[in-house]
Amino acid sequence: MSHIHLPDGILDPLIWIGAYFLCLLIMGIVLKAIKIDEAQKKIPFIGILAALMLIFMSVPLGIVPVHLSLAVLTGIVAGPAFGFLAVFVVNIILALIGHGGITVVGLNTLIVGSEAVIGYYLFNLLTRRLKPGLSAIFSTIIALVISTSLMLGVVTLTVGPQEALPGHSHDSDIHSGEESSTDIHNDHNDHTDHEESLSEALEEINYLSLTGWAALVAILLVGIFLEAFATSLIVSFFSRVRPDLISRP
């Protein structure tokens, strides 16, 4: 849900280069901390989880204009380090097939990767008192709320709030010859235009019998619920047939 779909050429270079730098720094630290024997045991399984993430993140749900990521599930099963690396690989592949630009891979990895990290630690904390399935639900909801808030905040502050709305299409006029992306970011006289664009974009959002803000909130809530429900089902299944996959030493 928190995956950013912006094409290349929209984000300020300072933002996406900085995000790449931070992302690569984190991965460098992670790779140094990973034990070789642990990696040999988990890499095949992590590949399966990454494949599932790739499928779910590239296919819309249909009943709601968002997609699942299974990032929290990957974090719970593979751990925060391997989960973060899997998110990076998935985002690279998605960018190569046109599901977002190459320039947003670092930012997407940081945001979606936060779901894996937050979900892992919350799940470990909650399983001390709750059953695995219920712990997975709460962990997923909290992680998604945080990551989605980060995504909405980043996109709103960089390219405008309308670009963060579910189902929003990035029209080619953003890249028109009359006005470059730099001009858009540096124009201080278009505040009213942004407000009108947001209002128009919200008016176009329809979900069930709802429109505007009500439809937007409903879409986000349904998406979060579906992700939490799917994660809970899989974690509950693993806790019965392969408890070693979610148990911690």
Describe it.
The structure is a single chain. This protein is mostly helical and 249 residues long. It has a single domain, classed as Arp2/3 complex 21 kDa subunit ARPC3, CATH 1.10.1760.20. 68% of the residues lie in helices and 2% in strands. The protein contains 9 helices and 2 strands. It has helices at 13-33, 36-58, 71-78, 80-96, 105-126, 132-159, 181-186, 191-204, 212-241, and strands at residues 206-207, 210-211. A two-stranded antiparallel sheet has the order 1-2. Strand 1 (206-207) and strand 2 (210-211) form a beta hairpin. Helix 2 (36-58) packs across helix 4, helix 4 (80-96) packs antiparallel against helix 5 and helix 6 runs antiparallel to helix 9 (212-241). The protein is globular and about 50 Å long. The two termini are 31 Å apart. Mean pLDDT is 81; it is low at 170-196.
Q: Would you spell out the secondary-structure blueprint of this structure?
A:
Elements: H1 13-33, H2 36-58, H3 71-78, H4 80-96, H5 105-126, H6 132-159, H7 181-186, H8 191-204, E1 206-207, E2 210-211, H9 212-241
Helix pairs in contact: 1-5, 2-4, 3-4, 3-5, 4-5, 5-6, 6-9
Sum this structure up briefly:
This protein is mainly alpha-helical.
